[in-house]
Amino acid sequence: IYKAKQPNIDEICMNLSSILSITENWTSKDVRRYIANEKYIVEVNTQTGYWSFQDRSITNELYGSSEQSSLTNDEVCQKAKEVAIKFGVNQTLFSKLSVGGIEQTTFDPQTDSEVTKVVGHNVYFYPVIDGKDVWGIARFVVTLDGKGQVAGIMKSYPDLEIHSQVKAISSKDASEKILSQEGIMISDDPSDADAILVNGYEVVYYIDIVSFDEENFFQPVYVFKGSYTNQGNVIPGYEYVALTPALDDAYFDSNK
Prior knowledge:
Blueprint: E1 2-4, H1 9-19, E2 27-29, E3 32-36, E4 40-45, E5 51-55, H2 56-63, H3 73-86, E6 96-108, E7 113-126, E8 128-129, E9 132-136, E10 139-145, E11 150-156, E12 160-162, H4 171-179, E13 184-185, E14 195-207, E15 217-230, E16 233-234, E17 240-245, H5 249-254
Parallel strand pairs: 9-14
Antiparallel strand pairs: 1-12, 1-15, 2-3, 3-4, 4-5, 5-11, 6-7, 7-10, 8-9, 10-11, 13-17, 14-15, 15-16, 15-17
C-alpha cells in the first residue's frame, strides 16, 4: 500500500517558477495559488499539490487552427517525454502513455464537404506501480500544438511513499464480495440483462485524492470485467466492470 505525501506548496511554486523562468509573485485565493498574465496561466491547488500550466497564445492558436499537424506519433511522444522529464516526472513510475489527437473540422468549399484535421496532441502519462496499472485521476498531461510547441501541462498525481505491506485476499474471496454487492460497479447496467458473464479480472491500484483532510492511499483493488447477457446472448454495446478492495476487511477495521 502506498501513501500520498503531504504536498509542500511553497516548494512546488518555487520549482515551477524556476523551470518556467517566472519572476512574478504568486497570488493566493481560496484553494489556489496562481500567476496569470497575458502570456500564461500557472495554477497550483493548495489542497492536493496538483498544478497546471497554459500558454495563452499557443493555446489560442491551437484551437483556432485548421492546419494539419506536421508531427509523427513518435515525435509527439518524444517531445512530451522531454517536457515530462524537465518537470521532474518519474519515468519509472509513468511508464505507460497514450496519445490523443486534437481535431478541428472545417468546411472545404472546393469539395463541398467537411474536413477534419489533427491540429495538436494530448499526451497522457499514466502511472504503473509494481507492474500494475493505476486507476483514478492520477496522470500527467502534455498538450502540444502541431509544431511541437507546449500549449499546456497538467499534473494530477501525488508523490508517493510506501505505507505498508498487506496480504491480498484471493480472487475467489473478491468475487464473493462483488456477488454480495460489496464492490463498486462502474459500468452501465442494461435494463434487459438477466445475467453477467465475467471474462476475467486483474489487480490494479486506485486513487482519487480530493484533499489532505484525511490520509490518502494507493490501494490495490480487484477489477472484474465481462459482458451482460439476455437469455444466453451477449448484449452489444455494454461492458461489465466492477471493482472491490484487494485487502481483507480486517485491515480496514484495524485502521479506522
